[in-house]
Amino acid sequence: PRVSSIQSNLEELGSLIPSFQVLINLQHECLRANELDEEDYDKIKPILIQKELECQNVYFTYDPKVSTYALQNINIQIPANQMTAIVGPSGAGKSTLVDLLMGLNRPEKGSVLIDGTPLTKDNMLSLRRSISYVSQDPFLFNGSIRENLLLVTPNASEEQLWEALEFAASSDFVRKLPNGLDTIIGDRGIRLSGGERQRIVLARAILRKPSILVLDEATSALDSENESKIQAALDGLKGTMTIIVIAHRLSTIRNANQVIVLENGRVAQFGGFMQLTEDHGGLFSNLLQKQMKAAL
Ligand code: ATP
Questions:
Q1: Protein residue closest via CA to atom 3 of ligand 1
Q2: Any ligand 1 atom below 6 A from CB of 93
Q3: Pairing mode of beta strands 266-271, 258-263
Q4: Residue 228: what pLDDT?
Q5: Which residues of the chain fall below pLDDT 50?
Q6: Rounded distance, CA 9 to CA 5, Å?
Q7: Which pLDDT score, from 0 to 100, does residue 89 have?
Q8: How far is the CA of 11 from the centre of ligand 1 (A)?
Q9: Which of 112, 182, 228, 261 is the most exposed place for a label (fewest CB within 10 A)?
Q10: What was the pLDDT predicted at 237?
Q11: If you measure from the C-alpha of residue 61 to the centroid of ligand 1, how many angstroms do you get, rounded to a whole number?
């Protein structure tokens, strides 16, 4: 997924390019692989996490001149091949933490470690090559489902496309479309429902065969059918890759193996979904109650 080739793909699409912001999002999805030329990129070995991704005493600030930290004293472990959810109020530091874990930002103090080895310039590229990131505002263009899937893995076979769709709980609906994979999905995928769009983007992320899948869950509510389909898709992926979800709707992370609750840049709580739910008076159970009331 070299951005140079993505850029030329986009140029071919001419007027279909929606906006600069979308290009930025797509670059983020491919984790800024454009920092390398193609040959170097192919030489980078992906990383398979054996045990865990870890933060040890991590502090991060966006402005070193001011002594306010976006994250402070973060000590967490994200076990390999499990699903970890990161939750917390707006501005708590969820995206900042994920950027650090992906090597997109560096801690001011402390370290991010992969299986006990600190993240350095060298293994950071391997880490990025191993991550698929699905942003809240993923890029879909007015081409076919096939073209949208092939955008970042142009050499994927028909079989691999269907396999990824299957994992993303999308194969049934794509099969039912009049032109299947060759169905044109409209500007930004407008002819698909919100849930279908998310699942196509999930399929595209899976096609890269990442060892880490990072999902920044869209804030807008999905209907419950689509929500449970995405949950089922993520459940199906559990055990095959490390999944990190920035969750806004707490109902979607019931099946997470562990939940990190952030507040004002610190870890306020950590534990399993049920454990946190039962911690009455805790931030997580308060957030959950608020969301349940809002949904009534
Ligand atoms: P949300 O749920 O609203 O996306 P979040 O939990 O992901 O929020 P972050 O985006 O990580 O929170 O932001 C943590 C803090 O860092 C906030 O105070 C935010 O204003 C600040 N921040 C985030 N990005 C930047 C930036 N690029 N420059 C300066 N400050 C930033």
A1: 90
A2: yes
A3: antiparallel
A4: 80
A5: 1-3, 10-29, 31-36
A6: 6
A7: 92
A8: 32
A9: 182
A10: 86
A11: 10
Measuring CA to CA, which residue among 67, 121, 63, 118 is closest to residue 96? 63
88 CB within 6 A, ligand 1: yes
Calculate the CA 117 to chain-centre distance: 23
Q: Ligand 1 atom 11: the closest Cα is on which residue?
A: 93
Length of the chain: 296
Q: How many angstroms separate the alpha carbon of residue 95 from the centre of ligand 1?
A: 7
Sequence letter at residue 156: A
Beta bridge partners of 118: 113
Please choose from 96, 215, 249, 267 the residue to mutate so as to test ligand 1's pocket, defined by most ligand atoms within 8 A of CB.
96
38 contacts: CB under 8 Å, gap ≥ 6: 2, 4, 5
CB 18 within 8 A of CB 190: no
Amino acid at 157: S
136: Cβ below 6 Å to ligand 1?
A: no
| Site to substitute for ligand 1 among 62, 136, 267, most atoms within 8 A of C-beta | 62
Predicted pLDDT at 20? 41
Which of ligand 1's atoms lies nearest the C-alpha of 96? 11
Q: What is the DSSP string of 4-57?
A: HHHHHHHHHHGGG---HHHHHHHHHHTTTGGGS-HHHHHHPPPP--SSEEEEEE
Q: What are the tens digits of pLDDT across the range 209-237?
A: 889 999 887 666 567 777 787 788 888 88
Written as one string, the DSSP assignment of 184-219 is B--GGGTTS-HHHHHHHHHHHHHHT--SEEEEE--S
ipTM rounded to 2 decimals: 0.98
- Give ∠ CA 187-192-195 in degrees, rounded to 5: 125
Q: What is the pLDDT of residue 183?
A: 94
The residue whose two tokens read 């994927």 is 156
